[in-house]
């Protein structure tokens, strides 16, 4: 397993956490810068103070200037002063005076105000002469960042929480989408919609959950095939059982309604009842075996055997059972296979051989040949019967399938022989397929692995 989902989650979580810290840092810096600047109204008011002080200063009325400064201090509960920033050189080169005259006595109104100091800063509002300034303590009401603590708390708590919630939603949707599809499919499947599938709903997704969807689809396909097969099997079985049961009822009714007839007639009817009973038993046994093979898909490769010995026994039995048919065999001295099953392979080949003999006309020939390949043996059983229409070459392996022309002349056949043969061969990793001979008749090719 590649653990694609694990790496996806690592990527999403890692990216989300890095993005969270980055966004928090950007947001804190942005809000801190914005909230550190004086508002436009405060700047305007401070500029108005500077303008008023400069007008009084230019008039030369120092007593009026003193009164104005005192009123400002009392009104705003701050300290304020009109000061000059002249530099007196004591030694050294005086040619760079322009670089250090007019040094700052306080902050400019365009500078940031530190949000973490408790003491209000001093603001310098220079006059036009470049040497005189109004230096005033910033009133508390003008200090920016009154909501900084609340804003910082929001940025440190609410923003990370919001990012983590968004990240959780992304993870939840990424994980829950296939789970939700599986849940809906399971509900639909439980209500009888056996065609429901999940993998195609996940698009190009390729991780552990998509693999789970594929497993679900395989399971759903297998279960739906079994259920549909069981339904068809039960329907066909009920249909097939009606015929021998009807004949059995007729024979029983005749036996009960004609008790006065002779012993010979009664014996014939009893034999008829016995025959129909055997047919029903064989039908039920074959149906149960077929159902077991379909549902359990057993692996029966447990023993070694010689195909030649097995085929010779089956051919002898066929000659005894169908003395009016000819069987020719082209077999090597031996054909040893491993990991097979004598019973399953024998019953499958017997059903195929009997099917060929059943539909071969009297005095016509069934040919059995065995070809040795590198890793497998091919058993070819060809007859001289009517063959099978091309469109039914695969259908003949379905349970209870019989061609109409064969149904009327072979009342003892239930249409289970080839279906059983195919399932038994599959259980030992062998295959069978049918083709029509150019010269007429049906050719059944059985491929059996050597198992070595």
Automatic annotation (TrEMBL):
Principal subcellular localisation of the protein: membrane
Coiled-coil blocks: none
InterPro entries, alphabetized: HAMP_dom, HATPase_C_sf, HATPase_dom, His_kinase_dom, HisK_dim/P_dom, HisK_dim/P_sf, HK_sensor, HK_sensor_dom_sf
Keyword Signal included in the entry's annotation: no
Subcellular localization, as worded in the UniProt entry: Cell membrane
SMART domains: HAMP (SM00304), HATPase_c (SM00387), HisKA (SM00388)
Keyword Kinase part of the UniProt annotation: yes
Known catalytic reactions: ATP + protein L-histidine = ADP + protein N-phospho-L-histidine
Histidine kinase domain sequence ranges: 236-452
Record's bilayer topology term: Multi-pass membrane protein
Membrane-crossing residue ranges in chain numbering: 6-28
Domain of life, source organism: Bacteria
Keywords, alphabetical: ATP-binding, Cell membrane, Kinase, Membrane, Nucleotide-binding, Phosphoprotein, Transferase, Transmembrane, Transmembrane helix, Two-component regulatory system
EC number(s) from the headed UniProt entry: 2.7.13.3
Signal peptide region: none
Major enzyme class: transferase
Residue ranges annotated for the HAMP domain, each copy included: 173-228
Protein name, as recorded: histidine kinase
Species the sequence originates in: Pseudoalteromonas fuliginea
């Amino acid at each position: 397993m590649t653990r694609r989902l694990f790496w996806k989650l690592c990527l999403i979580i890692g990216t989300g956490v890095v993005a969270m810290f980055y966004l928090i840092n950007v947001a804190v810096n942005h809000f801190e810068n914005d909230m550190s600047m004086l508002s436009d109204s405060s700047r305007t008011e401070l500029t108005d103070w500077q303008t008023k002080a400069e007008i009084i200063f230019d008039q030369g009325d120092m007593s009026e200037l003193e009164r104005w400064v005192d009123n400002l201090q009392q009104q705003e509960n701050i300290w304020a002063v009109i000061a000059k920033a002249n530099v007196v050189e004591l030694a050294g080169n005086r040619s760079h005076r322009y670089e250090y005259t007019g040094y700052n006595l306080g902050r400019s109104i365009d500078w940031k105000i530190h949000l973490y100091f408790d003491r209000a800063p001093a603001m310098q509002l220079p006059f036009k002469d470049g040497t005189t300034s109004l230096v005033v303590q910033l009133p508390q009401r003008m200090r920016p960042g009154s909501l900084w603590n609340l804003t910082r708390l929001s940025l440190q708590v609410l923003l990370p929480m919001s990012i983590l919630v968004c990240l959780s939603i992304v993870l939840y949707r990424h994980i829950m989408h296939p789970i939700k599809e599986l849940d809906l499919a399971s509900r639909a499947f439980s209500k009888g919609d056996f065609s429901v599938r999940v993998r195609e709903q996940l698009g190009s997704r390729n991780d552990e959950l998509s693999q789970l969807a594929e497993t679900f689809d395989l399971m759903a396909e297998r279960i739906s095939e079994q259920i549909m097969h069981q339904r068809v099997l039960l329907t066909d079985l009920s249909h097939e059982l009606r015929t021998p049961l009807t004949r059995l009822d007729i024979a029983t009714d005749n036996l009960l309604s004609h008790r006065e007839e002779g012993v010979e007639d009664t014996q014939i009817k009893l034999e008829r009842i016995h025959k129909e009973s055997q047919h029903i038993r064989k039908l039920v046994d074959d149906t149960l075996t077929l159902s077991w093979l379909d549902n359990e898909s057993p692996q029966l490769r447990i023993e070694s055997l010689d195909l030649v010995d097995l085929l010779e026994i089956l051919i002898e039995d066929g000659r005894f059972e169908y003395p009016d048919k000819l069987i020719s065999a082209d077999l090597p001295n031996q054909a040893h296979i491993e990991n097979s099953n004598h019973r399953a392979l024998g019953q499958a080949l017997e059903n195929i051989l009997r099917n060929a003999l059943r539909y071969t006309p009297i005095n016509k020939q069934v040919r059995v040949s065995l070809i040795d390949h590198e890793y497998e043996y091919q058993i070819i059983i060809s007859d001289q019967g009517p063959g099978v229409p091309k469109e039914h070459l695969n259908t003949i392996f379905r349970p209870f399938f019989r061609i109409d022309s064969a149904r009327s002349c072979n009342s003892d056949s239930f249409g289970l022989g080839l279906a059983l043969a195919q399932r038994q061969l599959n259980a030992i990793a062998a295959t069978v397929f049918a083709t029509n001979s150019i010269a007429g008749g049906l050719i059944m090719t059985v491929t059996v692995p050597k198992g070595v």
